[in-house]
Amino acid sequence: MRILLYSLIFFLSVFGNLLIIVVLTVNKRMRTVTNTFLLSLAISDLMMTVFCMPFNLIPSILKDFIFGAAMCKIVAYLMGISVSISTFSLVAIAIERYSAICNPLKSRVWQTRSHAYRVIAATWLLAFVIMTPYPVVSHLESYRRADNTTAHLCRHNWPHTTAEQTWYILLLLVLFAIPGVVMIVAYGLISRELYRGIKFEMGNKKDSTDVKNGLTSTVSTGSDDGDGCYVNVTHRPHSMEMSNMASSSRALKTERPRSNTSEAKLEAKKRVIRMLVVIVVFFFLCWMPIYCVNTWRAFDEKSAIHALSGAPIAFIHLLCYTSACINPIIYCFMNTRFRKALLATFSCCASPCRHHHRRSLRDNEEDVMATGASMSKFSYTTVSTMGPC
């Protein structure tokens, strides 16, 4: 079962992340700011899949690290780098989306691809620097097995117990707790902003429904609380009444596509909010167990090894690797625009792209999260508030 699950996650991760790298590299129209971060995320997830999974599964099955002392240091270093870059990329995407959706006017000044390249370079450099202790403390140790043969383990030998405990607490904070809080806050504020848009759209929908269903009542009441578009026709001649009815009929015909558009916007915003919840839930589900286990092992190694050795720790590691498989699905394959670019890239008989075609509303709303600019904010922020989220 362990081999089957590891193999499945491995091939899905490699296949999915390679597709993302190819599509975002080949298609110039897909080179947006967010997609630049997604490309970095795909590369880091591919690194984690290639350099973590085989070197974790094979020694676990054979009870022997057969790759040598040099690979023990290299693999430990690359594991830490890939996990760090993946986490930093998720945080960068969350901050970029928050800024683009909650502060679209300010974000346009600095959200450029050159800025994204600088942020990505900084995250990669930071990951390489932070993980330098791993090749230093990683060593290949020999031990005797039950059948009197010699086997090897790739272990982390820390000079002091305090240093090991400090290191794993640092990792818990820098790579899990702080990124998790940042993602919760950013996506929470985005969800609140989209929820405001939902309330505004529902208000518009209610108003349009009142216009269609309450035309007669609005006309007959003669209330002064209206918006000036309706008049009391009880004092007007019959010809004027027919004229108003005809103009109202034309207005209702114009209102129907707007109503359909409003409903599509509502559904798109709800889909985005659900996707944000899924992102946060999967982040904590995939990474919380391993960081808790590492911290536990740093403070009480004997009880941790006794409770988690064998299958439990293998499946906890598998849960981490699942994030490299889930990220492509959540961030790219759920986006209609990316799926179209994927089909266009790998379709031999794909027709040339039209430069002046109309995008569907669903594409535009899903591209809120892909391109960063939430144009729906301008449709209701002027009514509610112009302040930040």
UniProtKB/TrEMBL annotation:
Presence of keyword Transmembrane: yes
TM segment ranges: 6-26, 38-62, 74-95, 116-136, 167-190, 272-291, 311-333
Record GO terms (molecular function): gastrin receptor activity; neuropeptide receptor activity
One Pfam match: 7tm_1
Membrane association type: Multi-pass membrane protein
Location relative to the cell: Cell membrane
Recorded GO CC terms: plasma membrane
Origin superkingdom: Eukaryota
Signal peptide as annotated in the record: none
Ranges of residues in domain G-protein coupled receptors family 1 profile: 16-331
PROSITE patterns recorded: G_PROTEIN_RECEP_F1_1, G_PROTEIN_RECEP_F1_2
Swiss-Prot/TrEMBL keywords: Cell membrane, Disulfide bond, G-protein coupled receptor, Glycoprotein, Lipoprotein, Membrane, Palmitate, Receptor, Transducer, Transmembrane, Transmembrane helix
Function in brief: Receptor for gastrin and cholecystokinin. The CCK-B receptors occur throughout the central nervous system where they modulate anxiety, analgesia, arousal, and neuroleptic activity. This receptor mediates its action by association with G proteins that activate a phosphatidylinositol-calcium second messenger system.
Family: Belongs to the G-protein coupled receptor 1 family.
Protein name: Gastrin/cholecystokinin type B receptor
Protein's organism: Sphaeramia orbicularis (orbiculate cardinalfish)
Organism taxonomic ancestry: Eukaryota, Metazoa, Chordata, Craniata, Vertebrata
